[in-house]
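quick q for whoever's on today - can somebody do inverse folding on this one?? i tried earlier but teh output was garbage lol. tokens:
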């Protein structure tokens, strides 16, 4: 993945966080700046993982990496909101939901990017 892919992953993650932060059950109200920080971490870690595997990953692999990275980052970020009274299952479920959406979108983006690269050659 090149820097264009990292920027696309950042924008996609930020959009999905903004759209679904109001609809998911127990996410605490996060501000736009917190969503930008989460999206930066997801894009940065995703870029590093892609580069560890040589810079080319198939679209399903890209989606899987997007899912794992997003779920992990969002789960870690929201653990400081968890108190003994609140059930952590809801946070984990919402993190998995956001991670799945980012993973699916990332796989679709990877497939479209791969097709656009074939038409240029």
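ok took a stab at it. sequence:
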């Amino acid at each position: 993945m090149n820097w264009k892919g990292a920027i696309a992953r950042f924008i996609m993650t930020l959009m999905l966080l903004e759209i679904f932060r109001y609809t998911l059950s127990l996410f605490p109200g996060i501000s736009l700046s917190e969503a930008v920080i989460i999206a930066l971490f997801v894009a940065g870690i995703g870029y590093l993982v892609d580069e560890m595997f040589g810079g080319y990953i198939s679209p399903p692999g890209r989606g899987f990496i997007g899912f794992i990275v997003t779920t992990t980052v969002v789960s870690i970020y929201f653990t400081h909101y968890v108190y003994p009274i609140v059930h952590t299952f809801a946070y984990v479920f919402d993190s998995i939901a956001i991670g799945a959406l980012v993973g699916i979108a990332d796989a679709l983006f990877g497939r479209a990017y791969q097709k656009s690269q074939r038409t240029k050659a």
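fwiw The chain has a mean pLDDT of 76. also The first helix runs from residue 3 to 20. so keep that in mind when u check it
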